[in-house]
Design a protein that fits this description.
Elements lengths: L13 H4 L2 H5 L3 H25 L1 H5 L6 H10 L10 H16 L4 H12 L4 E4 L20 E7 L8 H11 L5 E7 L1 H5 L1
Parallel strand pairs: 2-3
Antiparallel strand pairs: 1-2
Helix pairs in contact: 5-6, 6-7, 7-8
């Protein structure tokens, strides 16, 4: 959590911005005004520091750790609280790409890869073709479906419920989804 920075100086002290009559005269009023605005420098210095560094706050690779989770909310990404900081940064950085691919096999694979760290196998029933002949047969199957297969590496565990919930959250509503999580022992068999 960010806080105050001790002895942070303002890049534009208020005393330097005072009109000439308040800077040149040697009266107690001038002294009071200078002391008053100098006290405000410490209050406004963090605001200047934040505004001067605003691009860094908006870049997930440079933003402070607590701000990365805030940025995740801006881009509708939901990082796991247990993830290390670099993985949360990567999720926020790739969120727009994942939203652009939402509803596609590539988007589903990207989501699973990001959340589990494992490359999934995806089989889908759809297809695309073109033809100059009218009434040509359509590619794919009549009932849309997708099968997601995740092969857990040796010694790793994959939360099946979490993978299923992730697939359900990103699949198109009309597509039936099946999720298979295979352990390393099942892959070798």
């Amino acid at each position: 959590m960010r806080g105050t920075i001790p002895d942070l100086r303002s890049p534009r002290p208020f005393a330097d911005e005072l009109p000439a009559p308040y800077r040149q005269a040697e009266t107690s009023v001038v002294s009071l005004v200078e002391r008053f605005v100098t006290g405000l420098d410490g209050v406004i210095a963090p605001v200047f520091a934040t505004l001067d560094n605003l691009p860094a706050y908006l870049d997930p690779w440079l933003a402070p750790a607590d701000f990365v989770d805030y940025l995740a909310g801006w881009v509708a990404a939901a990082p796991d609280e247990t993830w290390p900081l670099e993985r949360r940064r990567a999720l926020v950085a790739h969120a727009l790409r994942m939203h652009a691919l939402r509803g596609t096999a590539a988007g589903l694979a990207e989501q699973i890869r990001t959340y589990t760290g494992i490359e999934p196998e995806i089989e889908e029933s759809g297809g695309v073709s073109w033809s100059t002949t009218p009434e040509s047969p359509l590619p794919g199957e009549a009932q849309p479906r997708v099968t997601v297969r995740v092969r857990a590496p040796a010694g790793a565990s994959v939360d099946v419920r979490r993978v299923r919930a992730l697939v359900e959250s990103v699949r198109p509503a009309h597509v039936h989804a099946e999720v298979e999580v295979l352990s390393a022992e099942e892959v070798l068999a």
